[in-house]
Amino acid sequence: MYTQAMDQQPKEERERKAVRSVEEVELERRFDAKIDAGDFIEAKDWMPDHYRKTLLRQISQHAHSEIVGMLPEGNWITRAPTLKRKAILLAKVQDEGGHGLYLYAAAETLGTSRDQMIDALHSGKAKYSSIFNYPTLTWADIGTIGWLVDGAAIMNQVPICRCSYAPYARAMIRICREESFHQRQGFDALLVMMRDGTPEQRAMVQDAVNRWWWPSIMMFGPPDDQSPNSAQGMRWGIKRVSNDTLRQRFVDATVEQAKVLGVTLPDPDLKWNAEREHYDFGAIDWDEFKRVIAGEGPCNRERLATRQKAWDDGAWVRDAALAYARKQATKQEAA
Amino acid sequence: MNSNQNAANQSSLNEWPLWEVFVRSKSGLDHKHCGSLHAADPQMAIQLARDVYTRRLEGCSVWVVRSDQIVASDPADKGMYFDPMEDKVYRHPTFYKLPSEVDHM
């Protein structure tokens, strides 16, 4: 999902300034040398404007994805089938909130405030992962999100632990460490239904997999030949592995897991290619992907409206906490 | 550490201040910087630090410090500040080759 941000750069930002000062050229030469040496860039180090903007966009949209990603799952907290599943789901949704916070903090180091980023989300200027605009219709959707959506996210995120921008890389290391339980709990929840469940429950799992499979493999972003900014991202060590490579890795791993689970993946063209030593898969509906990104997915309006409402309803709490802190500080000064 | 505070501060008069969080992973070890968060006051910062950074037994003690209270060296001075130590190899025990009889000194 995170590579999506890089593929959606506004056009004007793709065209770099033609005229630069001698000093800037020298700074950029040193910056490039640092990247080539595999060195990390820290918040206060000099960096090209375009690098800063690209990262800010990617990290803030990654943060938004974590926060909006709490909504489809939060939908099932009160309806989880057992206390155990409810505790697990609560822990997972709390993690997503935490991941959003780590990432906002990393993005803030680039010089944009938290409020500015949240404002960009609410106004629709900033995007979040397309996947969270699909509805969670049944309990099996929760297991499937863990297995497929978190599985795809982990596949995407592990290479970012080696991102050249150190605050982002550090946040990603923490996130990846915490997120491995997310995928496992999802698979576990589905496995229980497939092995010990009723025929209706098994059908429910298959239905969820049918609906989430294609959106999940879209999470890796457009194909490499339609991803014009990837090369620059690779050059700068922001992106380490291409969209298509990550997607293939995910498909190869997931097909085997689906066999264990006893579900079929909804793609008649999915088959082992002995020559490539990978699974071939069918054509992805990129028009759907573009529609969902552009705001026309099943839940785009609902998701944004929920976030906006939470933000507005929380305004008095934020203001009151700040007013209280200022009052206490004044009292202390007076004493 | 979060920099560029000036740019951020202009638009964020009503934003809770930023705090840096340090966690002691177990007794006997030092506190290590692990990230930052926004909180209105010190008590809230400590509580949020617990919720955000120690959900999996990562620590037994937490420090929080207002980010704007931290003084840091300037990255532009890195060479001037730290490179002079590069040629002072005699500050390291490995510089001294002793006879093998006493080399575990």
Concise structural overview:
The complex is a heterodimer of chains A (335) and B (105). Helices cover 67% and strands 2% of the residues of chain A.
| Approximate shape of chain B | elongated
Structural class of chain A: mainly alpha
Q: What proportion strand of chain B?
A: 15-25%
Range of helix content of chain B: 10-25%
Category from helices, strands and their pairing of chain B? alpha+beta
Low-confidence stretches of chain A: none
Kindly state the number of beta strands of chain B: 3
The string of secondary-structure elements of chain A, in order, is HHHHHHHHHHHHEEHHH
Give start-end ranges of low-pLDDT stretches of chain B: 1-11
Number of strands of chain A: 2
Roughly what is the average pLDDT of chain A, rounded to an integer?
Answer: 93
Order of helices and strands of chain B: HEEHEH
Shape of chain A: globular
List the helices and strands and how they pair.
The complex is a heterodimer of chains A (335) and B (105).
Chain A: H1 2-7, H2 11-14, H3 22-36, H4 49-68, H5 70-74, H6 83-108, H7 114-122, H8 139-157, H9 166-196, H10 199-218, H11 230-235, H12 243-261, E1 271-273, E2 278-280, H13 286-296, H14 300-313, H15 315-334
Antiparallel strand pairs in A: 1-2
Chain B: H1 5-10, E1 18-24, E2 31-38, H2 42-53, E3 61-66, H3 78-82
Antiparallel strand pairs in B: 1-2, 1-3
